[in-house]
Fold:
Amino acid sequence: MTKRIAVTLVSVILAIGLLSTLTDAGIRLVSKEVHMGKVERSAGQENIVQPGMNDVNPADFLAPEELGKYSWIMSGTPVLSPDKKRMVYVATRDGSTFAVVDGVEQKAYYDIGRTPIFSPDSKRVAYAAVLEDKWVIVVDGVQGEKCDEITEGLTFSSDSRQIAYAAGRDGKQFAVVNGVEQREYRRVHWVKFSPNGKRLAYEALKSNGKYIIVVDEAEGIEHNRVANHTFSPDSKRIAYIARHDNKWTVVVDGVQGKERYDRIHNIVFSPDSERLAYIGVRNDRDFVGLTGETFRLKRGDQMITVLMDEPQGKGQCDRIYGLVFSPDSKRLAYAAIRDGRHFAVVDGIEQEKYDGIGMPAFSPDSKHIVYSAKHEAKWLLVVDGVEGAEYDNLLENVSFGTLDWMIRFPRTVIFDPENPAKFYVPMVRDQNILRLEVEIVEEAY
Structure:
């Protein structure tokens, strides 16, 4: 049972509160509250404005004289580059539509169909445009080959050197990588680069009605359906889910798992790329599956490769979400709901039940686990099973109207890079925004 802790205010200096919590769990929580401002809009919402979202307000980014130049500005723009130094938006004037990159109007088109994107290094800009009755991709102002349709959005590789998307022509679809068209299929979906930017994978529907995953231009095994393909952090492995006879299974490196589910979602590789966790659903109940090693097995005259995967934890839940491995890949945590009660599961052990719970987060050294929890009308943080002080709300549940709020107040737990036992999280009490700084001090007995 979790011990509810009484927190005593020790001192207040320049709107900073220092709080110390001594527990019987072998740790002491030292917390400091820094006042960062007031909440000016209503709490309890989740529609926080971010660059690229459909509710971005151009007036937050553009001067009135700039807005007055155009008859229309695309919803979801302006978009800021990752380094926040560049901006692109789509505008219309006199019947023509064009991108405006860093204040410079680009070539006019009949239409621009998708929100422009920046490369991870912020140096490149790409978008899809309509020229006469054909689609083209424009990358850094250079127009690509015409096609009948752009079926999937653009994606840059992590090193910003490559760009890929899915397109269609004459009833066929294909992936395009750096302007080079790949093999044709009936359908192509979800073109993705590996984390190192050197590999590419996508889903494809063949002419025989079977689905495959294409990795580095090599076709995988055929399935009735495929979905959710993902690369491992080291880019060497790939996993996805596949359906046969109305049941879904995980497939890792071309080898199918033995467990079958009605649905599978949220597949996650461990940081060392050795294991894969996923959420499987049977009879509307959620399970967590965890893959282990593959081994060779003789079946008749053939040797086959078998992937071991097994349900984890005590049992089924109404819902499971927020799967996360620890940085050292040795621990696993997630949030779950059963019979209306929310709880974390850490290393297979169910924790205290609450009225709500946030995503668990491990410390950089993998020793500590932190998550937010709702007790009646209040929110609190739970560290290694120990509860901290109560607050009216989490900042992630408060809606703001400007990008500045997002930059100043990140919504998740942020651990100190120089101290794995220290973290920061924004909270709200009495309409005051507080940056809560918490240090976990281990007590010797």
In short: The helical segments are 64-67, 403-408. The radius of gyration is 25 Å. Residues 284 and 318 are 7 Å apart (CA to CA). Residues 1-38+333-445 form one domain.
